[in-house]
Every structure is written in C-alpha cells, then in structure tokens.
C-alpha cells in the first residue's frame, strides 16, 4: 500500500494522504540553522545545536505521535468553522491534501470548503531563519472573510532544561512585541546574548505570546481559544510558556489569492553589546530588523528559494547515474545523496527518534558519514574532519560524542568505545582519495580542544592506530572496551555470583573482552594509513603498518575463525561470542563484513565461505539480521544486547547499517548478483509498495528493520539519521557500480548483476568531469578488461586525475 509517490523530475516525494503510518519527515536548512518538518507540519527548529540552541518546543513520545510544530489555522469568519491546512493539529476533514517533501524544503497544500492554502517551508542559504510562504486562494463563487493564525511554541533554549526545570522556567519567559514582530528574549542563565523572532508580512489584527491564553484553559493545539473566537488576545508572556502567534484578516473576492509570509529566526547580539540593560530592544531592532524586512518581501523569498534549488542542482550534479533499475537511479541521484547530507549535518542528534538532547555529533558516526558526503562538498568535509580530530584524546582515544556548539566531548559518554579512533583514519583516507588534498595532513589540530596541544593531523592518525596496538587482549585481538561498533554488546559486564547485580571492570578499555570486529577494522585502517604514509615518503613507517595489518590478519585467522564464519568477540571471561560453541548468537554479521573489507580471507576462500554462511543463516527478504539465533533471555555477560526482545534492534534485528558491508564484501569476491540483491532488499524506494508494513518513509533509509524473530518482521524504525545512508551510497556507487576514488585516481571497476547490459554515469572528481559508459554482454558476470579514455586504450581500471575543468570520456569494456 502506498501513501504517496515519487516525482523524480521535481526531486520530491508527494504524500497524498496525511495519515501516514508514522510521521514522514524532512529537514530544513543546510548549514547552521536547521528544522525538522513532518508531512503535517510537526517538528521544531534549532541553531547549530539541537540541545543548547533549540528555538521551538516539541514533545516526543506523545499521543498523537507528532504534536508541536509550525502550525497555521484558517477560520471562516462567517461560519466560525476553522481547520489546519496541514491537517494537524485540528485533524479536520480536508477536501484535498498534498505534502511535497523536496531537497531542504517542504510544501503542504490542502483545500476545505472552497478555500485552498499552500505553504512553503524552507531555510534560505546563509541565513539563520526559516520562511513560511503561505498562499490562500478563494475558490468559491462568493467573497470570503477569513482569519489566518500562525503559531509556534518557544523552547527556552536548552532543550533538556526546558523539559525538566519547571520551577525555574515558569518564571523566566520574556517576550516583547515591537512593530508586529514577536521577540523571544528568554535567556538561559545569561542575558542579552541571543534571541528568536517571529514576524509576519501583513498588518496584524492581533497577536498572542502566552500559550495558555492563546489555547485557553484545559485546551490543546487542536482547539485554540483565540482561533475559535476569531480574535487574538494580544497577550504578552511573563513567565509560564511563551509562544508566538499572529492573527491576519483576509478578505478575498472569488478567485482571489493572497500571499502571507512568516519568518522565524535566530540572532545574536554583537559581543560588545551583550550586556545591554534587559528590556532594551535597540540592539535587536538595529541589527535584525533589516533582515526581517528583507525576508518578508515576496521577491526576496522567491529569489532565496530559487538559490536553494540551484544549490542542490549543483551538489547532486557531482554524481548522476542511469542504470537499468529505477530504484537505484532514484536513490543514487536524489534521495540517498540527500540523506547523506542530512546525516552529515545532524550526525545522530535530532530526528523523530533522537530527541536532540542526549547525543551530539558522534566520533564514529561523523567519520562514517563523511564516506557518503565527501564528494558533494569536500571543503565542508575537511572542516568536519578537523573538528572531529580536535576532540581526540592524547592517548588516541576519543569521546564517543561531542556537542556541535561547544565542540567539547560529552563526559557522560566518555571514551572506551574502542573502534572509535580507527574511524578517523578511514574518514581521512576517504577525503584524501576524493580530493588529493595532502595539506590536511599537516593542519594543526589540538587534543581535546586544549590550546597549545596542537599537532599535525597525521599525528592524530598515528595515535588512532597506536591506540588499538596498545590495547590487545589475551588472544592478541583488540580489547573491545565499552563496546565496538555494536554499542549494545557490552562484554566487560560480569557477575561474580549468578543473580547478583552486574559489575564492570574499573577501566572498560582495559577489560579483557576482545573484538574480532575491531581486529578486521584495524587491518583495514592500518593498510589505509600505510598508503597515506607512502604519500609522505615515510616508507619505513608504511612497512610497519603493513606488517601490523599482516600480523593482525594472522591473529584473526587463528582466534577469530570459527570454521565457517568469523567469530564476533571474546567476553570478559574469555568465552567466544558468535561461535558454533554458543547456543544462541552463533553468527554475527559485523565481522563477516569488516574482516572481508580488510581483505582477510580473500585469498584462501574463507571470505567466500563466510559470505555463504551469511546467506544461509542471516539473510531474510527484508535484509540481513545482525545475528542468529536471537537471544531469548537476558545474559549479564553480554550486556544490553540481550535486553531487547528477539528480532529488534541489536538482538537479531536487521540493523541496516551492516548490510552494505556485506554488499561490498560480495562485490569484492565478484558476486554482482548477490551484492545487488542485498542492495534491493533494504532500498527504501523498492519497499514503497509495502509502506503499511515498512511504516517509515519510503525515500530514506531507516536504522533498523524488525528481524525474522520479531512479531513485526519487516517493520522499520529510526529513519533518517543512520550510517546506513553513507554506507549504502558507498556500496552501490563505489563497489557495485564500481566508480571508486583512490589515491592514484578514479577507478572504474563495476561488479554488476548478470542481467544488466551496463550503465552510464557522470562523476565530478578533483575538478574534472568524467562521463562514464559501462557496457557488458547480458548474462555475463565478467569484470572490466580495459578502459578507453578519450579514445585511447588504458590497461587496468584506474583513470589518472585529469586537469581541472576537463571533461573526460571513459568507456569500460567488460568481457564475459
């Protein structure tokens, strides 16, 4: 069952009924100011940091699920009938409804009783504000007297404090209305630093800034008293719950349309004037009023929206493909690339499943997000790498997460996720392969953002690898610490006496539990760092890293191979995890992917055997589950993983993030049909027909899909912010389609399904444009024999970098 359709030409997903199985959302903003918007106008906005600079309030885990947002109300002043053009929050019956989620914008249109309304929401490039452009049309044969009400509920900046510290917050709200602009002045424990504003392009019939006055006692957003009576109360908030609402009167002749623009924004006062006396609005008006007035003009809004479209046209133009599969084209050319941009901006911090409070930017997460984003805006990828590296400890360890506003590590999370440091090597390697910018390796980067501790970025990479080498366990495998990639596999938990509370080792990074996954990751990272060392003419150092990779490979084969697949780990007591010796959790997907990515078992057939075990034991029609059999009871020595019911999340759920590792591994062993089959199983576009089961958005990847042990096998959760986006983009574009940036140039080495006869692609790379054609006989599973580059045969599959601005014609010849 579908709830909408793809409009590929407009690069939009069109939702044609508001009652989607879950809120289907989109993101506004591209740089510093961001917002989440659902298909019924739910969501919230923030500046840079969803925890510390939250502009508007949103209530998670509510009933209905999606309450709080950018709501408008229309009222027929003749009849008293009122409704929400976005359906929520009044949920009044609409004669027509359509939501179009586009690239950093959303358009919601509806009609009721002969009145049509269409609202465009977007954040202009380079601005710290959002625009709501609403067009109201009278389609009746008679004149219409209407009232239009806007509404937002302000958050008191620190979203966690806002949701908990009521004894203080009910006394701090400050709002001022000046010349029709609503200024939210409430500060969090400091004065005159930043503020929000909410403005309207039309003369106001009234306004409200006190929530309980606007709504009325014991009422909700579905029945505001001001809207019901058709007149605002002109309330000014002093404490309690500040909000913003404009009341505009519209008199429309038959067929007449009126456009009303609302602007919600964030501003900071100049630092020299930060401590101006409270109550003075001279600074606000002096610096902000020109911005407000400019964006309340229709021509400015039209120009800003056109620039946003041109921006995305340029970004997506860096890679476009035409293949025999529509789902592949749609995801590669539009939605997967777009999701990679969003995950790059948000990490895992702010979605409808992440509150924006508990997590900032992830060290592991953000490095992986680079993989799918670096080709789009490499300059921002460079900036992010330096930000991430600046949070690293001198030991080479890393804060698992850090706040984007302060760039300080979250101490409550701390370090000890022992896979974290190695991801920095892989992120930097991806950047170097894409850009050739070796200067980043000499960029000075501090440890823990401490002034005076700066060393070249290359030294951070050295310490990332050394961190693993300094933390090896009894079998010579890397210590897992708190956890590796699987945050819920906490193997340094133990109980001295059965039934007693669990304990942890005092220093989990020094606990005895070991990770085969990190071992495979180390092999991959050490090889990448060896190649980087060679670029710096450090041949001796490169040899040391290759020797370390070879040594770890030997340890994996001796202690990590279980006979038909790679083991997962060893627990605190030295017992194998992910082994045929176990009664449950005998095989895990992560090491089957990561060990093969590191090249372990490729030459002796073990990689192919491990992948056959994945196909036999872990693959389902909805994707590859994390492990089998699922854990059916809580096991203290495993930690959180066994606390989930079978088939959900880390306990044998389809954790989509790991699926592309298997796709890549299948491509590495030459199995194009297997790699593409796995790709299609979790491709959101390919799952659109089963939206009533999948439930999440059919245009972006979800973090997990319920596994075969679950009661709701095939149901997705945690959409949008997931490493699944970047890794699937890498799997399909770099390994299945085979257009892969490397240090020496652009490799064209596809591993295609047998039924394909080829494909075409346009790829920007280091300032040049490569127009690529791949042709192969139908039914063939062969590989590229040679390339024809600008009419000349080139042996091998690597095209050397061309001069900036050049258009290079590449034909890949596949022989059966």
From TrEMBL:
<dbReference type="InterPro" id="IPR037825">
    <property type="entry name" value="GH94N_CBP"/>
</dbReference>
<dbReference type="Pfam" id="PF17167">
    <property type="entry name" value="Glyco_hydro_94"/>
</dbReference>
<protein>
    <submittedName>
        <fullName>Glycosyl transferase</fullName>
    </submittedName>
</protein>
<dbReference type="InterPro" id="IPR033432">
    <property type="entry name" value="GH94_catalytic"/>
</dbReference>
<dbReference type="InterPro" id="IPR008928">
    <property type="entry name" value="6-hairpin_glycosidase_sf"/>
</dbReference>
<dbReference type="GO" id="GO:0005975">
    <property type="term" value="P:carbohydrate metabolic process"/>
</dbReference>
<dbReference type="Pfam" id="PF06165">
    <property type="entry name" value="GH94_b-supersand"/>
</dbReference>
<dbReference type="InterPro" id="IPR052047">
    <property type="entry name" value="GH94_Enzymes"/>
</dbReference>
<dbReference type="InterPro" id="IPR010383">
    <property type="entry name" value="Glyco_hydrolase_94_b-supersand"/>
</dbReference>
<feature type="domain" description="Glycosyl hydrolase 94 supersandwich">
    <location>
        <begin position="11"/>
        <end position="271"/>
    </location>
</feature>
<dbReference type="InterPro" id="IPR011013">
    <property type="entry name" value="Gal_mutarotase_sf_dom"/>
</dbReference>
<feature type="domain" description="Glycosyl hydrolase 94 catalytic">
    <location>
        <begin position="311"/>
        <end position="738"/>
    </location>
</feature>
<dbReference type="InterPro" id="IPR037018">
    <property type="entry name" value="GH65_N"/>
</dbReference>
<keyword id="KW-0808">Transferase</keyword>
<dbReference type="GO" id="GO:0030246">
    <property type="term" value="F:carbohydrate binding"/>
</dbReference>
<keyword id="KW-0328">Glycosyltransferase</keyword>
<dbReference type="GO" id="GO:0016757">
    <property type="term" value="F:glycosyltransferase activity"/>
</dbReference>
<dbReference type="InterPro" id="IPR012341">
    <property type="entry name" value="6hp_glycosidase-like_sf"/>
</dbReference>
